[in-house]
Structure formats: structure tokens, C-alpha cells
Recover the amino acids of this structure.
């Protein structure tokens, strides 16, 4: 099978589906038409810019520029995590906690893949490193955002129960154990569901792209399995680190709940 090249007209025809969706939103008064158009426009601009940047990076083959691109991806993903919290930690922690968790988890897992399984030459090859890092980072971002949002919401809602346990002599670790476990579960559910559905319910985008490009199905399966294991590992590390660090931030060494380190609830 030869590679199928798409023209701008082909892509434009597929965009008609989004226009239909926007019209349906208007007809049903869902209030999502504007958001759909803005999101689609943003997506087109971002992907076109990324395509130009990646082409330049592939030609340069520089570890410095590859690292700068990776850091830029982390900084933007940290902003996305913060924007999705109904409540936030005060100060630098609102942005820094999720960003740091993604930086550590994404970098460690990507370097693990590049040096032990994929082994490109050179090992920092942007054509390989950035797509892998991007897939790991995107899924880790979702997990961390869900985990932190669940934790911060639950702590505010269950403050009385936590403080009652503290008054009965429980340590802060014991009093917080329930909300921490639930937050970690919330962050990991998407990747668990994704792994459960692959093959029977869906064919992942990476595998679909490889097959359309002419790669043998079993070879595409091996790459998809590798990526899913890496994503699951990165997501787990990131969610655990972010949730546990957030729980630590909202307590102190005198076994007190420190909700003064938490901002007010965002207005809807």
C-alpha cells in the first residue's frame, strides 16, 4: 500500500462535520458553537505552527533545540492543568506543582524509552523523541488535572470529616487517606479505560496512522503497545507525585489541615 497524501481540500471537507456540529449546537441551544469554532481554529493554527517548527527541528538534529521544544510543551501543559482546577493552591504552587510532576514523569519515561527500547541514532533524535514525549505528556496532563481537581474539591467538601478524624487522634495521613486514594483513582481511570478499550472498541490514532502509511499491522501493534505502556507509566508517576505533593502542601507537621493555602472556588 502506498502512502495516502491528503490535500488541503481533503482536510477542509472533513471540517464540514465540525460546522454541522456547530449548527446543531445552535439549533439545540447548547451554547457550544462558539467554543467549537474557537477550539477548532486554535487547533488548526497550533498544528500548522508545530508542523513548521518540527520540520526545522528535524533538519537541525540539535539536542539543545529538542530540549527547548520539550520544555515549551511542558510549560504550556502546566498552564492547561492549572486552568482546569475549580480550586487552586495559592501562589506558585497553583502552576508549579502540576508542571513539575509532568516534567519529572514525562522526562524520566521518555528517556527510558529512548535509551532502552527505541534507541534512535542519535538518542535525542527529535523525530522520535518529541512525538513520544508529546503522547506521554498529553495523557499525563489529563491524569494530573483530573487527580488534582478531585483532591482539591474533595478536601473542601469533606473538611469537617477530616478535621473530626484529626480531633479523634488520627494522624493527618490517616485522615487524608480516603480523599488521596479517590483522587489518585480519578487520575488513573482514563488511562485504564483507554487500555481496556484498545483493540475491541477502538484502534488508537498512532496505530491507525501507521497502518494508513503502509506499516504492517503487527508492527504497528508492537509500537502501539510500547507507547501505551509508556503512557501508563508516565501517567501513574505523574498522578502519584502531583496528588501526594498537593496533599502534603495542604497539611503541616502539626497534623493540621491548611485550607488557607487553597484559593476560593472559581465562579461558574
Amino acid at each position: 500500500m502506498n502512502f495516502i497524501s491528503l490535500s488541503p481540500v481533503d482536510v477542509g471537507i472533513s471540517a464540514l462535520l465540525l460546522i454541522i456540529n456547530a449548527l446543531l449546537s445552535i439549533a439545540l441551544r447548547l451554547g457550544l458553537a462558539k467554543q467549537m469554532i474557537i477550539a477548532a481554529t486554535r487547533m488548526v493554527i497550533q498544528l500548522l505552527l508545530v508542523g513548521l517548527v518540527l520540520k526545522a527541528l528535524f533538519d537541525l538534529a540539535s539536542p539543545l533545540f529538542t530540549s527547548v521544544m520539550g520544555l515549551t510543551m511542558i510549560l504550556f501543559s502546566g498552564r492547561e492543568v492549572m486552568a482546569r482546577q475549580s480550586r487552586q493552591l495559592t501562589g506558585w504552587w497553583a502552576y508549579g506543582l502540576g508542571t513539575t510532576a509532568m516534567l519529572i514523569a514525562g522526562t524520566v519515561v521518555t528517556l527510558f524509552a529512548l535509551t532502552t527500547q527505541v534507541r534512535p541514532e542519535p538518542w535525542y533524535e527529535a523525530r522520535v523523541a518529541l512525538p513520544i514525549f508529546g503522547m506521554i505528556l498529553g495523557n499525563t496532563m489529563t491524569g494530573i488535572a483530573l487527580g488534582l481537581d478531585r483532591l482539591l474539591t474533595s478536601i473542601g467538601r469533606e473538611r469537617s470529616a477530616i478535621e473530626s478524624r484529626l480531633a479523634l487522634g488520627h494522624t493527618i495521613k490517616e485522615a487524608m487517606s480516603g480523599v488521596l486514594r479517590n483522587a489518585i483513582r480519578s487520575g488513573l481511570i482514563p488511562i485504564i479505560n483507554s487500555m481496556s478499550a484498545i483493540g475491541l472498541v477502538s484502534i488508537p490514532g498512532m496505530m491507525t496512522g501507521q497502518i494508513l502509511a503502509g506499516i504492517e499491522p503487527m508492527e504497528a501493534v508492537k509500537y502501539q503497545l510500547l507507547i501505551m505502556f509508556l503512557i501508563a507509566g508516565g501517567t501513574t508517576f505523574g498522578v502519584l507525585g502531583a496528588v501526594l505533593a498537593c496533599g502534603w502542601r495542604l497539611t503541616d507537621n502539626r497534623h493540621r489541615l491548611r485550607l488557607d493555602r487553597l484559593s476560593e472556588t472559581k465562579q461558574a
Notes: The CA atoms of residues 19 and 37 lie 8 Å apart. Residues 1-60 form one domain. The first helix runs from residue 8 to 28.
